[in-house]
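Sharing in case it's useful to others searching the archive later.

Someone asked me privately for the predicted structure of Cytochrome c oxidase subunit 9, mitochondrial, so I'm posting the question and my answer publicly. Question first, with the sequence:
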Amino acid sequence: MIQPIVGKLRKRFIFDLTLSMGLGTAAAYAYWYGYHLKAIDRQEQFYLKLEREKLSQK
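And my answer, the predicted C-alpha cells:
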C-alpha cells in the first residue's frame, strides 16, 4: 500500500505565502526608496525654485 502524502499542501502554501510577502515587501521598499522619495525631492526642488523666482521678481 502507498502511504498518503500528508501536510505537503500546507507546507507549500506556507512557503508560497512567505515568499510572496517577502518579495512584496522588498518590491515596496525598492519602489519607496528607489523612486518615490527621489520624485518627491525633485518636486520639492522645483517648487522651491518657482518660489525663489517669484520672490526675486517682486
